[in-house]
UniProtKB/TrEMBL annotation, chain A:
Pfam families: BPD_transp_1, BPD_transp_1_N. SUPFAM superfamilies: MetI-like. Keywords: Cell membrane, Membrane, Transmembrane, Transmembrane helix, Transport. It comes from Actinoalloteichus caeruleus DSM 43889. Residues 95-300 form the ABC transmembrane type-1 domain. It is a multi-pass membrane protein. Belongs to the binding-protein-dependent transport system permease family. InterPro entries: BPD_transp_1_N, MetI-like, MetI-like_sf. The keyword Transmembrane applies. The chain crosses the membrane at residues 99-123, 135-157, 177-197, 235-261, 281-304. This is Peptide/nickel transport system permease protein. Its main location: membrane.
Automatic annotation (TrEMBL), chain B:
It is found in: Cell membrane. The keyword NADP does not apply. Residues 88-275 form the ABC transmembrane type-1 domain. The lineage of its organism: Bacteria, Bacillati, Actinomycetota, Actinomycetes, Pseudonocardiales. PANTHER family: OLIGOPEPTIDE TRANSPORT SYSTEM PERMEASE PROTEIN APPC, PEPTIDE ABC TRANSPORTER PERMEASE PROTEIN. It comes from Actinoalloteichus caeruleus DSM 43889. It holds the Pfam family BPD_transp_1. This is Peptide/nickel transport system permease protein. The chain crosses the membrane at residues 28-49, 90-117, 137-162, 217-234, 254-276.
Length: 320, 294
């Protein structure tokens, strides 16, 4: 058991290290001289020379990579080319704002989808199931920018209750940002809910067909007890995994949704960095997203193991 | 990731398998019909569109639906209906190219590592995991920053981003086939890996690959439209659904159709692909639901 955890930790670290190499390579693949590519054709030779020095371009690539990774480990992610400020501070501030959306999204999506998924599973092939399954199919078929646009039309224009655009800067307090969180979170949550509903529905159908449910029912356990004791936990467990797998996609959705609502989070920062060709900033955001993804998957694996005794013992058997 | 491609029931062969699945599943049928209709419209758009999709007409800008313009006009007076009819061409072309490439690459790599196993399997899957850990939109934005947003760049980048996920699924399916007797027999006969791959393994996981294709295609279209929406895809004035929503979003109270029409077009296409994937996977017994959106 312990050695399984250790092995899983090691493989997570290895994946992060590998993806850092990939990110670095991708951004170093700028054709021609990186400095003049960033500055464009009209740059003066002095400006190019300054940037070359700033990016340490005279050093070999592997040395720059090691310096970057070494810095990243100690919390120094370099200096933004656009603002001249340390990248870590800027990303940190925006990350806090994005986490606010992410937490709201995940909480709402998970609660809603587990309830809907269990309902659909229990009423399999009857109208609640048809309705819920149909809606989740539509939910996973429309991109975030569409959901966001429709939400703005409904809740900011037709019935103006929530702001369509965030006017606060990145350093606004959480209290100031809170009213602006709901629409972006809803836009992100739709697709996520749709996926978890489908998962939960299948799990519930599987479980309810299981022998122990028949036993429980025959034992005289009420339907409600059967649902809360067997159906709900079984629907909850796989959602852990879906959330972890969806983190990568959530980051992408965040870019789109933050752009629509002008929300000062990592997604907006990333788009700015793309427009400014701010390589240190892009590198940092990509590395952080990859790390978050790997850690979430690690947590989901370990969590599933802790919650599911069957998985735990199988791993032990496998290791012997 | 359980690709259960091994429950062979006799009806294999790509076309017969597909037809069999279609006969048994209304869902798959409706889905494929929706996709086919979209392909047809995209192909015939220049013939059936009542107006040019890029022609400006400032005198008729922001007009509501009427006889001359069935779905109204946008802020430049361009005919919304014609733009919607043309609007799938870029997304469909790029998405189709990227999906074919990703599924082909992923299938070959997945089969090879499943057959070979050992250190090669370990190494390749490690790298694939690393690629998977970088969110697709983010990876594409990085690539676009570095290489620009040309269609070829987008096709290659999207296919690279999605190859690892396909590889994982196909590898799991192929691992189910690899220990079977006919593969062992072929190995004992001394057949080469390529021949085993194409003659023994691939025909038995065709169903997994087909479902994978429909599913990936739906995600790729969503991704490509999102990129267009963000301004890293089709270039204005090219008609494209994602771009159209971005252009007309601010005028949604004045001419709602200019935003809603491309939304409906995009949604029906993706719903079609999802229905096809659902129907086919159910008919073939391939577990689709238990896959995240990577």
């Amino acid at each position: 058991m312990l050695s399984f955890v250790a092995r899983r930790l090691f493989s997570a670290l290895l994946t992060i290290a590998l993806s850092s190499v990939l990110i670095f390579l991708a951004l170093q693949a700028l054709p021609g001289d990186v400095a003049s590519q960033i500055l464009g054709r009209d740059a003066t030779p002095e400006a190019v020379a300054t940037l070359r020095e700033q990016l340490d371009l005279d050093q070999p690539a592997w040395q720059r990579y090691l310096e970057w990774v070494g810095g990243a480990v100690t919390g120094d992610l370099g200096t933004s080319l656009a603002s001249g400020e340390p990248v870590a501070a800027e990303v940190g501030l925006h990350l806090r704002n994005t986490l606010l959306i992410a937490v709201v999204t995940i909480l709402v999506a998970v609660t809603l989808s587990v309830v809907l998924g269990v309902l659909a599973g229990l009423y399999r092939d009857r109208w609640p199931d048809t309705l819920i399954s149909g809606l989740s199919l539509v939910g996973m078929s429309v991109p975030e920018f569409v959901v966001a646009t429709l939400l703005v039309l409904a809740l900011s224009i037709t019935v103006p209750v929530l702001p369509a655009v965030v006017l606060d800067g990145p350093s606004a307090s959480i209290g100031e940002l809170l009213p602006a969180v709901w629409l972006p979170a809803a836009a992100l949550g739709v697709a996520m809910t749709a996926y978890i509903v489908r998962m939960a529905r299948t799990s519930v159908i599987d479980v309810m067909a299981g022998e122990f449910v028949t036993t429980a029912t025959l034992k005289g356990l009420g339907r409600w007890r059967v649902v809360t004791r067997h159906a709900l936990p079984s629907a909850l467990l796989p959602t852990l995994n879906v959330i972890a797998m969806n983190i990568a996609w959530l980051v992408g959705g965040v870019v789109v949704v933050e752009n629509v609502f002008n929300y000062p989070g990592v997604g907006s920062l990333m788009l700015q960095a793309v427009h400014n060709r701010d390589l240190p900033m892009l590198q940092a955001i990509a590395l952080i997203s990859a790390t978050v993804y790997v850690l979430c998957n690690l947590a989901a694996d370990l969590g599933a193991m802790a919650l599911n005794p069957k998985l735990r013992s199988r791993e032990q058997v496998g290791l012997r | 990731m359980s690709g259960t491609g091994t429950d062979t029931t006799g009806r294999r062969g790509t076309l017969t398998g597909l037809l069999g699945a279609l006969r048994g599943s209304t869902t798959a049928w409706v889905g494929l019909a929706l996709v086919a209709a979209h392909l047809l419209v995209a192909l015939l758009a220049p013939l059936v569109a009542p107006h040019s999709p890029v022609e400006n007409d400032p005198a008729n800008a922001l007009a509501g639906p009427g006889w001359a313009h069935w779905a109204g006009t946008d802020q430049y007076g361009r005919d919304v209906l014609s733009r919607v009819l043309h609007g799938g061409r870029y997304a469909l072309m790029v998405s189709f190219g990227a999906t074919v490439l990703a599924v082909a690459l992923g299938t070959v790599i997945g089969c090879v590592v499943a057959l070979r196993g050992g250190w090669l399997d370990n190494l390749v899957m490690r790298v694939m995991d690393a690629v998977l850990s970088i969110p697709p939109v983010l990876a594409l934005l990085v690539v676009v920053t570095v290489l620009g947003a040309g269609p070829l760049v987008i096709v290659l980048a999207v296919s690279l981003v999605y190859t690892p996920a396909v590889t994982r699924v196909v590898r799991a399916a192929a691992q189910g086939v690899a220990p079977s007797d006919y593969v062992t027999a072929a190995r004992v006969r001394g057949e080469r890996t390529t021949s085993i791959l194409f003659r023994e393994v691939l025909p038995n996981i065709v169903d997994v690959v087909c479902v994978e294709f429909a599913m990936r295609a739906s995600w790729v279209i969503l991704l490509i439209s999102s990129l267009s929406f963000l301004g890293f895809g089709a270039n204005p004035p090219t008609p494209d659904w994602g771009l159209m929503v971005a252009e007309n979003r601010t005028a949604i109270t004045v001419v709602p159709m200019a935003s809603l029409a491309p939304i409906i077009a995009l949604a029906t296409l993706v719903i079609g692909l999802n229905l096809a994937a659902d129907g086919l996977s159910k008919a073939w017994g391939v577990d689709r639901v238990r896959k995240g959106r990577a």
